[in-house]
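Summary: Need help interpreting a holo structure output

Steps to reproduce:
1. Submit the protein chain below together with the SMILES for flavin-adenine dinucleotide.
2. Request a joint structure prediction with the ligand placed.
3. Inspect the structure token block that comes back.

Expected: a single structure record containing both the chain and the bound molecule.
Actual: see attached output.

Input attached:
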Amino acid sequence: MKNFDALVVGGGIIGCTLACELRKAGLRVAVVERSEPGTEASIAAAGMLAPHAGPQKRTPFFAVLRRALALYPDFIAEVEEAAGIPTEFKKNGLFYLAFSPEDEAVLAEKLELQLASGIRAEWVLGEEIRRRDPAIGPELRKGIYFPEDCQVDNILLMKAVIQWSRRLGVEWITAAPATEIWLEGERVRGLVSGRERWESPVVINAAGSWANFDRSLPFEIPVKPSRGQILVLQSSDRVPVFKHMLYTRKIYTVSRDDGRLIVGSTVESVGFNKEVTVKGLHKFLRGLLEINPEFLSLPFRECWAGLRPRSKDGLPILGKSPVEGLYLAAGHFRNGILLAPLTARVLTALILNRPPEVDLSPFAWGRFQTREKKISQ
Ligand SMILES: Cc1cc2nc3c(=O)[nH]c(=O)nc-3n(C[C@H](O)[C@H](O)[C@H](O)COP(=O)(O)OP(=O)(O)OC[C@H]3O[C@@H](n4cnc5c(N)ncnc54)[C@H](O)[C@@H]3O)c2cc1C
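--- attached output ---
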């Protein structure tokens, strides 16, 4: 039987980045992946690294998202250099667009909160936005500009991180669905996949929407799938459609260097169902029509749906579990690409008994238990 210093369950962006960080710290690490690495939510995402336009304000989570974004340039430089794969990371900023007086009123409220939270953001007139991003149609009234938000091609990033992990010497055990966390008394002894088992004093559950795979554990990991659909169009001249990421009240768009236009997304609780629906596509087309009706004549390229891992309160679950040696890196919901490098660093610190760089108490598994106890009191 093989043994390791740490076993990571799940080869998405979270598990893979964490495995690299642990390996860099000198641990013998394996990732146990039920199929192939990087085939689920991490390649279904849009790749926005955009905490500022979102709904979070002065919360501990917002501070964590900002910290995660601050780590990104160095993270990308390290991964690209080690893997030799460019990831289209760019700090191009995001425009939140208003096409009607109602949009303007909603955005004005948003901007007030954002400015109060110290976010860099400003109103820009429609004409000026169209000068900077000429493919937006003439119906635009105005928009808010968030200059600090970034984007990455998460499919390329996933490829690069897998390559990086191989170069670092992370071991991959693929086509191996973990079926059980191997416990001995009160602590972890390793991992079981059908008839196979591997020994390790540390196991990290990074299985995304499937984090609750071992129902025999003495506690529950409250993570469920949240479906997100994506439509991809292709510009005929194969150059980026927009220079910036765009948000409207209906959709968002992210442009790739080869002219693909990523349009998203939906947030749906439909279990482990990854179908793309006409309703989803209808929403995207309505949103595109608003930005510029001419986009409806762009060639269709593909569409897909992925499952975001969503915890009971929408925040990630990071840190120790009630079982000694078993750690959780789950529930990253809408921000897993953004949070991957920070998650890797804080989990590695915890595992090595060092203080993590951010306060993890708002993300501790125990918060659910406390809440339930409070309710029953
Ligand atoms: C449409 C959409 C748009 C998104 N846009 C963004 C965005 O713009 N920015 C952003 O930051 N985030 C975004 N996200 C969220 C982001 O994709 C996720 O938060 C992130 O990918 C979660 O990573 P993960 O590694 O936890 O999960 P996953 O990528 O799902 O990986 C989990 C892995 O675990 C494996 N696994 C499961 N069960 C087992 C088992 N029993 N044994 C072994 N392996 C197992 C799976 O096969 C999979 O490879 C988006 C998501 C979607 C769906």
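--- end attachment ---

Reviewer comment: The chain has two domains: 6-77+154-222+312-376, 89-147+224-308. The mean pLDDT is 95.
Status: needs-info
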